[in-house]
Every structure is written in C-alpha cells, then in structure tokens.
Amino acid sequence: MDIQNHYYGHSAALARHAGLNSIRHIDGLVQHGWTVASPSLVHFADFARLPRTARRFVWSHSARGWDPSADPFETVPIGAPFLYLSALASTDVPHQRKSTVVFPTHDTRIVRLDNDESAFAREIAEREGSAIICLHPEDLDRPEKRHVWTRFGHTVVSAGSRRDPLFLGRILALVRSAPRVVSNLLSTAVIYAAAEGTETAIYGPEVSVGTLSTGVARRTRELWPEFHEETGTGVRRQIALAELGRKYLLAPEDLRETLRWNRRSVGPFIQYWAGAPLRKAGAVLGLVRRPDGAQDAGSSAAPSVFLRHPLSHLPAKLPPLPLQADLLPEPLTPSSLSTDPAEF
Asked: Please, where are the H alpha helices in the chain?
C-alpha cells in the first residue's frame, strides 16, 4: 500500500518466507522499525484512515512501549521481518568480526538530532578501540558525518539505501558476526543484536530527537532498564524476542493469507502508486488530520522540507527478490555504493 512497506528489505524477507518468487504489494501498512510507542502513532501517523480492506500490521502485541488494547486503531501482529530472515538464514555463518559494531542514532532529512557525535566517536575509540560504524543511508551523503568517525580511526560501512532489498540481510550479518553491538540510544539494530544473542551496550552523550527532545532516551531508560544496566545477554535476548514478536510469527501459508498474498487485487497496487502518496501529501500540507497523540519528531517541519528530496517520498518499481545465496550479504563501504543515497 505504501513505500514504507518496502523499506529496509522487510517486504523481501516476508515474501521469501511466504514462498513467493517476487516482492508483492501489501494490503495495509507494515511496521518498519522498532518503536518506543504505538506503531500506529509513529509509523502510520499519516494514515488515520485506511482503505476498507487494508490493515495495520505490527511486529508484536507483547512490546513494553504500548498497549494494543488501548491503541486507537486495530492492529494485527505478524512478527518482525528480521525474525523471518534470521530463521531463513539460521544455518548461515557470516565472517566473524573482531571489532565492535556501532549503530549511531541517525538524522533524517526531516528530523535533526541534537547530540555530540564527536564526543561519542571519541568515547567509542577509548572504550572499544577501532570500531565498525554502520551509518544510516541518510547520513552517508553528508561527508562531514563520515569524517566524524574516520578521524577517530573507525571504519564506516552501510547496509544500503532504504529501499535496497538486501538491507536487512546486511544488518543481520553485522549483528550476528559482531562480538558486541553499541549505540547511543536503544534502537532497532540493538534489539536485533540482542535477539541474536550478541552482547549490547548503550552509552554516550544524551540524544535529543527533533520535537520529541530527550523524551525518547528517557522513555527507553525507564521501560527497558535491562539494556542500560549490567544484564546478561540471555535476559536481553528474551526481551528482544518479545519486542520483535516471536510468538506471533506465522507459517508461510498463514502469512500469505494474512497479507492477502493468496489472491490478486489491484487495490494495493493503486494505493501504492496513487492513494498513499496523495494522503501523505495531504498530511504534510495539513489537509489530512493526523491521529491524536501522533509521535512525530518532525511535526514542526515546514512542507518545503519534504520537497527538498522529492524522490525519497515517491513510489518506485518494487525491487527484485534477493536470491537464497544473498541472505547474509556483506555491508557496503561508501565508495562501493552503486546508487546515490540522496535518491532514497
């Protein structure tokens, strides 16, 4: 229905598990990252109304950050695409890394962070030595962002663009092969690492996220203290698996039924190319009302901000489904990126 369904290789992982030979449109919205509040109010805030048959698909109804029974919208838990991909690649062992892997909290073109990256880069060097820094694609096209890390002796890598179907596989390869994963804010990548049984740590200068300020960091410390204290990897793994919805994972035939991939319909196709882009444009311009309580860190951004990178908000042809041999691809280096990150 919307481009966010195909962010970070999620629809590719779902299609592979479902036994499809191509990525398909989805009749609804799929949660595309771990959240500290309801996905309805974070990822789906531009869609207070959905087409009649469309549904909101979330990872878990066992997450600590929100109560599905109190949510303003009905949601359907299906488990995180990461868990499906992890199971598909359960026998694959990536090249084991000796360096700590770091996932710094990232800016977006709409939301800017207020944090001291240089201080964090220095602290990483002091505590971890030379580390592997996986930058989000929206930071890769800013040389000053890369320089912050390289000048302290770290190696910068990337999982690819947001719409790269191999993105999730590269993240899985990194967190599965790392001796330790670090971030300055509890985030999706840290939850993924914990689910794989990898040691994790959260430290560094406090992060302020757009209009949400330091509330996100404070909420993560309050609700998930185990990730901020000395806690064993076993405890964190169980929490992460609950957050990712392991108990809600579906068999291939059930996933096809739930996502309505067992029938052909032009509705999701039309919504992807026309309905969803128009609705989001209306939300940006203030013509379509967002739901009460929407957790939008970029709510104060002017409509012109969304037009600076117009291609990043528009639909495009769905990517090809990765081959079985490409479930755990190696991360990219900035020089090896085949596509300008600014286009995504």
From this structure: 10-18, 39-42, 81-88, 117-128, 137-140, 143-150, 167-177, 188-195, 215-223, 233-244, 252-258, 267-270, 276-284, 303-306
